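wait is this the right file?? whatever heres the structure
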C-alpha cells in the first residue's frame, strides 16, 4: 500500500497546489470556459488545466512510480500498484458562477479500491479527509471529526443532488420517487454535497452519469465517516455511473428500494 504518512502528506501538497491554482482565477473578471461536448455545455477553464498540471508536477517529483488518472489529462501508467485520481475542479459550472460549492478531489487507490481521499473547497479553505485512519475536516471553524448522521426515516431526511434532471428520463423518474418522500431536497452542491454528508449535515446524495474522478474521493471520505456509497443497485461504483451515497445502511436501503421500485 505504500507509506501511509507519505500518501497523506503528498495529498495535502497536491491540495495546497490546486487551491492556489484555482483561486488565481476564481471570480476573476473575464474568466471564460471552453466546452468539452458539442451537445451540451460541459465547461473546462484555464484553472481546471492549471490545477491538474501543478498536481501532476508534484506527483512526478514525489511519487513518480504511481499511476495517475486525471479529468483533464487522462491516464499515466505507473509501477507501484497505486493510482492517484484527480479532479482539479469538480463543479466547473459552480466555479464559473462564483459559488463556493465546487472543489478539488484527490484520492489514491490500490487493487482493492480507494484507500484515501480528500475533498478540498479552496475559497472557504475547508478540507475533508478520509481513509488511512483519518476522518476529519479542517476549516474556518478548526478541526473536527467526521461522522455521518444517525438513522432516520426518509420523510425526515435531507437529500442532495447536483442537477434536478439527474440523468436519463428513467433515472430522473427514479430519483423523483425518492425526492417526493424526502423532507428536504436541495440542488447544485457538486462535490460539496458529499462533504456535507460525511460531516453529518445531510442524509443522502443521489446522482447519475458520474465518472471515476467524480466519485472516488467522496467514497473514501464518506466511508471513513461511517457512511456508504454504492450504485443504485447496491454494488460498488468506483468507476462512477449511478451513485447513491448514504449516511447509514437504513436510509440507504429505503432510498434504494424506491430507486428500483
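ok assuming it is, sequence goes like this
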Amino acid at each position: 500500500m505504500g507509506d501511509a504518512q507519505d500518501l497523506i502528506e503528498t495529498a495535502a501538497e497536491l491540495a495546497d497546489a490546486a487551491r492556489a491554482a484555482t483561486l488565481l482565477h476564481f471570480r476573476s473578471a473575464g474568466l471564460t470556459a471552453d466546452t468539452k461536448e458539442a451537445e451540451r455545455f460541459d465547461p473546462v477553464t484555464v484553472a481546471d488545466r492549471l490545477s491538474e498540471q501543478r498536481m501532476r508536477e508534484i506527483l512526478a517529483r514525489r511519487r513518480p512510480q504511481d499511476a495517475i488518472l486525471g479529468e483533464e489529462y487522462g491516464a499515466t501508467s505507473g509501477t507501484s500498484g497505486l493510482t492517484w485520481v484527480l479532479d482539479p475542479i469538480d463543479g466547473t459550472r459552480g466555479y464559473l458562477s462564483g459559488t463556493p460549492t465546487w472543489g478539488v478531489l484527490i484520492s489514491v487507490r490500490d487493487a482493492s479500491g480507494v484507500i484515501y481521499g480528500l475533498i478540498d473547497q479552496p475559497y472557504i479553505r475547508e478540507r475533508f479527509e478520509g481513509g488511512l485512519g483519518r476522518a476529519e475536516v479542517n476549516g474556518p471553524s478548526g478541526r473536527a471529526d467526521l461522522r455521518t448522521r444517525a438513522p432516520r426515516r426518509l420523510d425526515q431526511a435531507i437529500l442532495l443532488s447536483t442537477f434536478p434532471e439527474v440523468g436519463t428520463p428513467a433515472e430522473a423518474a427514479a430519483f423523483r420517487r425518492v425526492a417526493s418522500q424526502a423532507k428536504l431536497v436541495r440542488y447544485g452542491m457538486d462535490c460539496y454535497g458529499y462533504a456535507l454528508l460525511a460531516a453529518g449535515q445531510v442524509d443522502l446524495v443521489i446522482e447519475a452519469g458520474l465518472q471515476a474522478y467524480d466519485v472516488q474521493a467522496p467514497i473514501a471520505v464518506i466511508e471513513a465517516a461511517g457512511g456508504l456509497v454504492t450504485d443504485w443497485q447496491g454494488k460498488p461504483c468506483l468507476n462512477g455511473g449511478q451513485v447513491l451515497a448514504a449516511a447509514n445502511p437504513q436510509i440507504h436501503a429505503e432510498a434504494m428500494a424506491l430507486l428500483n421500485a
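The longest strand covers residues 113-121. so i think its the right one actually
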